[in-house]
Amino acid sequence: MTTTMRSLLFVCSYLILCLQCGIWGLKPIGADWPTREFRAAWVATVADIDWPISSRHTSNQQQNEMIVLLDKLQDLNFNAVVFQVRCAGDAMYHSQIEPWSRYLTGVQGKAPSPYYDPLDFVVNEAHKRNMEVHAWFNPYRANTSPSRSGLAKNHMAIEYPQYAYTYGSDIYMDPGAKPVQDRAHDVIMDVVKRYNVDGVHMDDYFYPYPVSGVSFPDSHTYNAYRSAGGRLSHDNWRRENVNNLIQRLYSSIKTLKNDVKFGLSPFGIWKSGYPSGIVGFSSYDSQYADSRKWFMEGWVDYMNPQLYWRIDPPKQSYTHLMDWWLQQNTKHRHFYAGCYAGRVVNGGWPVSEIRRQVEESRDRNNQLSLGNVFFSAKYFRDNSKGLADMFKSDLYTVPALAPEMSWLNSTVPPPPSNVQASGNTVSWSPDSSGAVRSWAVYLQQADNWNLVKVLNKDTTGYTGLRGQYAITAVNRLSTESDAVIINVNSDQPVIG
């Protein structure tokens, strides 16, 4: 037998096998709506903004409140939450390093009773709903009060009082002090090691927002740096302190767990005047946050600047700023715009402004604008000004998988096995690889494969209308397996 004949026989055999098994190397995509989009809401725990509703509520009440919140976001086809676990040197989880948050129990250092671990609870419940959990940390804020009263013995301001400064109405740790840098790094890596989180996230609190007429009191730390031979100016030294923490965290996270994403949400204006025509607070000059550098160096997996302005005003424009940020993305990371959904309540915005912002983000999909994060979750839970209704009917009408991050080198999961149709139900075998986070169900409509359902890994069946379906396995980085194609020949109504 010639080499050509053997090759033809192999190809024919493979095609017959594919026809028998219904397995094809295709990635079904929808036409009208994004199949891939990051859809997240910040869940703020500081001052009980989003959750818990009250630190006086029982453990059972708090858990039920979280379930209500997650159920609502799932119903609206969100696929991620950014959950605040460290507000001010405290913990919304069991930690051997830092004390329990007073926003959970009313007393810093006091564990919930009956005991539960909020971060573990959120991770488990969110994953059941096919939602990522990004653990949100504040690296330097020590207290949302100028007083040290009520701080636990193992709080960082008590353990390192020489680096804890009352500044305005808060207490802040000194980002230039190595023990403070190490503390932030170690706290975050402890969570990455012990919890099944999908991402690590920090927002806009680096050096504190300036208090008028008052300098941040870190001169003794800077003078020690100069005495040791350092040559940077005070401002550049401050920026370098933050840069070092960001770069160190990215490296440490990828070394420990490459599939844990790292994202930052800085103030939306890097410098006043960038881009041309933008006027406003300069985070580079006042918070010493060189967020453009972090993006351009690829020290993040996603950049999520807080673009908390409307589209039309020229001095602070959502779209003008978004376009500038997208131009800085030299490493081709993901960009998710931060949107202030609460402005429909406290800023007089119409809900149509939020709709336009999502639409503008989608219009830049080919520039790696791949989603939005909204502040904050309670406005969707409460359907403020009809916000949730608008998302349900106009924006997030169908599910979406999170976008893939090609640079994280995800392994493709095995396709579903033993896929069968009986009546109007498709079923398949449970995952035996340990690699599957979810199952994606697509329906062929006209010439398109449209995503109709994302199911958690413990669900192994879907009931739907007559048609041709494609089932894929999805891992924690949203990498999909090849699709298994199967026909459903029943006209029974959808109940799955």
Q: Tell me, what's the shape?
A: globular
**Treating each run of at least 4 consecutive H or I residues as one helix, how many helices?**
15
How many separate domains make up the residues? 2
Q: Main sheet?
A: 8 strands, parallel, barrel
Under the CATH scheme, the architecture of the largest domain is: Alpha-Beta Barrel
Average pLDDT metric: 93
Oligomerization category of the chains in this entry:
single chain
CATH superfamily of the largest domain: Glycosidases
Query: Cα distance, first to last residue?
Result: 51 Å
Secondary structure category: alpha/beta
CATH topology of the largest domain: TIM Barrel
Give me a quick take on this structure:
With 496 residues, the protein is of the alpha/beta class. Helices cover 31% and strands 19% of the residues.
Notable characteristics:
19 strands, 31% helix, Immunoglobulin-like, 496 residues, 19% strand, alpha/beta, 5-stranded antiparallel beta sheet, TIM Barrel, 2 domains, globular, disordered N terminus
Written overview of the protein:
With 496 residues, the protein is of the alpha/beta class. The chain folds into 2 domains: 3-29 and 409-488, Immunoglobulin-like; 38-403, Alpha-Beta Barrel (TIM Barrel). 31% of the residues lie in helices and 19% in strands. It has helices at 3-21, 59-75, 102-105, 118-128, 156-159, 178-194, 219-227, 234-256, 283-286, 291-297, 318-327, 343-346, 351-363, 378-381, 387-395; strands at 23-24, 38-43, 80-86, 132-137, 141-143, 164-167, 170-173, 199-202, 261-264, 302-303, 334-340, 369-375, 420-422, 425-427, 438-445, 448-456, 461-463, 467-474, 483-488. The strands form 4 sheets. The protein has an 8-stranded parallel β-barrel with strand order 2-3-4-8-9-10-11-12, surrounded by 5 helices. The relative contact order is 0.12. Residues 1-34 have low confidence and may be disordered.
